[in-house]
Amino acid sequence: MTERASESAMARLAAVGDVVLLPDCDEASLIGAVAAADALVVRTYSLINAKVIAAAKAAGRLKVIGRGGVGLDNIDLKAALDAGIKVVYTPAASTHAVADLVVGLIVSLQRRVVENDRAMRAGEFSTVRLAKPKANELRHQTVGVIGMGRIGTAVGFRLANGFGTRIIYHDIREIGWLPFPAESKSSHRSVYAEADVVTLHVPLTKLTCGMIDADALASFKPGSYLINAARGPVVVPSALAEALKSGHLAGAAIDVHDPEPPPADYALLSAPNCVLTAHIGARSPEGLAGMNDVVEDVIAVLQGKEPNWPAGPELIE
């Protein structure tokens, strides 16, 4: 294991084998560890690249890699599957936790909750109370969802059914029936141009890395808002900071960053009307419990059983 899991998860693993918690998860440590491991359990910050997979394949012992989380961008899935190593993960674990945060960020950003809190503490009650509102109620807005997977759908459900928000979306896959009214758009740009709020729910791939750059932001509706609770590298921070400083975007709320933790000169730290959170989207008690449950599939593979959530070749980007 590269990161300690819950006591329950650790106990479940300890019941079937010896559990070794690695002090470091750099490439050299991982290469050394996989040669003597039957299973490897990782989270967000362990990069299981082709070199690590090659070392595991050469040793011939590693049977399964368990990823506690939704994304697989830190695992070379093709290399693992080609080496005969199963990969399991928890794609549904954090759906509700992230969706709750996204809706909260939209409301917090548009109602200037953070700004009001700071002003109140500085004795500026009248100034902020009488300030001109910046956004209409959500029932009069259009929210654009980029990536209508589990989390995108959960966000759309909350906004459409709870607030009466109009939902538009774009996804590279054909999306079937949704439990709320939503209009599919043929491109990202058509969503950007029409939405009052754009919320990102895409995996990190070659297609999505850096997709929200200066050119993309220029096509956003003037005065709109951006929410990113997907992956940090999907957004170019310097470009977003400029769009906020120029006033082209009215605000942004960013839960994921590139790199993490961000450096002192991170462009968004000084950007106006930008709410920043520390990659907390999945970190509800239920979300963490769901991610820790990856150990159940790890144990299943070690015991020769079929896992509930295998990562197959269809997920290779």
Describe it:
The structure is a single chain. This protein has 317 residues and is α/β, with parallel strands linked by helices. It folds into two domains: 7-91 and 284-315, NAD(P)-binding Rossmann-like Domain (Rossmann fold), CATH 3.40.50; 95-276, Rossmann fold (3-Layer(aba) Sandwich). The chain is built from 13 helices and ten strands. It has a seven-stranded parallel β-sheet with strand order 6-5-4-7-8-9-10, sandwiched between helices. It has a three-stranded parallel β-sheet with strand order 1-2-3. Helix 2 (27-34) runs parallel beside helix 3.
Instruction: Give the neighbour order of strands across the main sheet.
Output: 6-5-4-7-8-9-10
Q: Outline the low-pLDDT stretches.
A: none
| Mean pLDDT over the residues | 96
Radius of gyration: 21 Å
Residue share in helix: 25-40%
Please give the count of helices: 13
Number of strands: 10
Question: What is the fold's blueprint, element by element?
Answer:
Elements: H1 7-14, H2 27-34, E1 39-42, H3 50-59, E2 64-67, H4 77-82, E3 86-89, H5 95-110, H6 113-121, H7 125-129, E4 142-146, H8 150-163, E5 166-170, E6 183-184, H9 188-194, E7 197-200, H10 214-218, E8 224-228, H11 237-246, E9 249-254, E10 274-276, H12 285-292, H13 294-302
Parallel strand pairs: 1-2, 2-3, 4-5, 4-7, 5-6, 7-8, 8-9, 9-10
Helix pairs in contact: 2-3, 5-8
List keywords for this structure.
about 325 residues; alpha/beta; Rossmann fold; seven-stranded parallel beta sheet; three-stranded parallel beta sheet; 13 helices; 10 strands; about 15% strand; elongated
